[in-house]
UniProtKB/TrEMBL annotation:
Belongs to the glycosyltransferase 28 family. MurG subfamily. Keywords: Cell cycle, Cell division, Cell membrane, Cell shape, Cell wall biogenesis/degradation, Glycosyltransferase, Membrane, Peptidoglycan synthesis, Transferase. Its EC number is 2.4.1.227. UDP-N-acetyl-alpha-D-glucosamine binds at residues 14-16, 128, 169, 201, 256, 301. The keyword Oxidoreductase does not apply. It is found in: Cell membrane. Cell wall formation. Catalyzes the transfer of a GlcNAc subunit on undecaprenyl-pyrophosphoryl-MurNAc-pentapeptide (lipid intermediate I) to form undecaprenyl-pyrophosphoryl-MurNAc-(pentapeptide)GlcNAc (lipid intermediate II). This is UDP-N-acetylglucosamine--N-acetylmuramyl-(pentapeptide) pyrophosphoryl-undecaprenol N-acetylglucosamine transferase. HAMAP family: MurG.
Length: 376
């Protein structure tokens, strides 16, 4: 008989944490429709909209990130952390979860710490090839740690590690559109090569600058571009395009809701090296030039990128060299079918399928085990 299991999923901050969290929830619901799921996020962050839009309930904690550069500013952050832990304790007492999942991001720290200290089994999902501080701290209490890269024993107890890959939104894999239909949906020319430029869920300043400074080059390239700027940069980007005059080979937007169509249209992708984007590129076998962000904790995007570059599965341009090289490299690569084919073959080998299902199965096992012991 199906037993009603309750699970908390906590974390967020950016798409890279939220999309895997929602995918795990969907997989749990698919496997065991009676599972009750509660999300715990950070007040004011992206998850507070995205999670309800995906059909799940979320409660926000007043948590904020530590300022690693200005230590004095952290007094307020510490107060918020204590308040968050108190609120997490109340949430857990009310909801009575049988397991908790942490996907990284501010909220997962207090939630998983409190859950662990109350004896509830916890599972961590580490998306990157270099473990974040929060996950390293939470790892001691965790029952299982699902990772996406080899070699994570250098951060975590190897007996707890399961190599699952990062969950990817199912609709990315389900699209039936042809390349031509996808290209047309952006108002572009189906006879031309197309480069998709993405900067992670929030956009990437360096990549945007390269495009804005390279508009004349783009005009002359014979190639067309779909450019996602991120919401902070869209006005500046649109103004630059207006000033450059007619650019029918360039589609500009702040955010692409339908990434499946954008990937389908692309012959080559230029991307930051966020873990979510990389997992998608692997599954969709897309040739990519990675430009890791140097502004993330412990420089983890460079490590993500190198895990692919070392296997000839991606091209690599350093952030500091992007202004000089990026557009030229993209135009060159997209016109070399042999290069594109090799990149596609090699990146496909790094894909993990069924990631969300495997993680959901592990969480459910932990939860059932706890429930059997405590609710007889
Ligand atoms: C700046 C920052 O801190 N980035 C981190 C953040 O990634 P961040 O959320 O920026 O990026 P990811 O690459 O992990 O994920 C981006 C997600 O947003 C989607 N997308 C993107 C653009 C768009 O227009 N529409 C859209 O839907 C992508 O398809 C993808 O699913 O979490 C990741 C996972 O821990 C880390 O590896 C990144 O280093």
């Amino acid at each position: 008989m199906e037993k009603n299991v309750r699970i908390i999923i906590s974390g967020g901050g950016t798409g890279g944490h939220i999309f895997p969290a929602v995918s795990i929830a969907n997989a749990l619901k698919k496997q065991h429709p009676d599972t009750e799921i509660l999300f715990v996020g950070a007040e004011g962050r992206m998850e507070m909209q995205r999670v309800p839009a995906a059909g799940y309930r979320i409660i926000g904690l007043p948590v904020a990130g530590f300022d690693r550069k200005h230590l004095l500013k952290n007094i307020g952050v510490l107060v918020k952390l204590v308040r968050s832990q108190l609120k997490a304790r109340k949430i857990i007492k009310d909801f009575k979860p049988h397991a908790a999942v942490g996907v990284g991001g501010y909220a997962s720290g207090p939630t998983l710490k409190v859950a662990g200290s109350m004896g509830i089994p916890t599972l961590l999902q580490e998306q990157n090839s270099y473990a974040g501080v929060t996950n390293k701290l939470l790892a001691k209490q965790a029952a299982k740690i699902c990772v996406a890269y080899e070699g994570m024993e250098r951060f975590f107890d190897k007996n707890k590690i399961i190599l699952t890959g990062n969950p990817v939104r199912q609709n990315l894999l389900d699209t039936k559109l042809s390349r031509e239909e996808a290209v047309r949906s952006f108002g572009l020319d189906t006879t031309k090569k197309t480069v998709l430029i993405i900067g992670g869920s929030l956009g990437a300043r360096t990549i945007n600058r390269c495009v804005m400074q390279g508009l004349e080059k783009i005009k002359a390239s014979g190639v067309q571009f779909i450019w996602q700027t991120g919401k902070f940069y869209i006005d500046e980007a649109k103004a630059a395009v207006r000033q450059a005059g007619e650019l029918p080979m360039l589609y500009v937007t702040d955010f692409i809701a339908d990434m499946a169509t954008a990937y389908r249209a692309a012959d080559l992708v230029i991307s930051r090296a966020g873990a979510g984007s990389i997992s998608e590129l692997c599954l969709l076998e897309k040739p990519v030039i990675l430009v890791p962000s140097p502004n993330v904790a412990e420089d983890h995007q460079t490590k993500n990128a190198l895990a692919l570059v070392n296997k000839d599965a991606a091209l690599y341009v350093k952030d500091s060299e992007a202004a000089d090289k990026l557009l030229d490299e993209a135009v060159k690569a997209v016109n070399q079918p042999e290069t594109l084919k090799n990149l596609s073959t090699n990146i496909a080998k790094l894909a993990f399928r069924d990631s969300a299902d495997v993680i959901a199965t592990e969480v459910y096992k932990l939860a059932l085990n706890y429930k059997d012991k405590h609710e007889r």
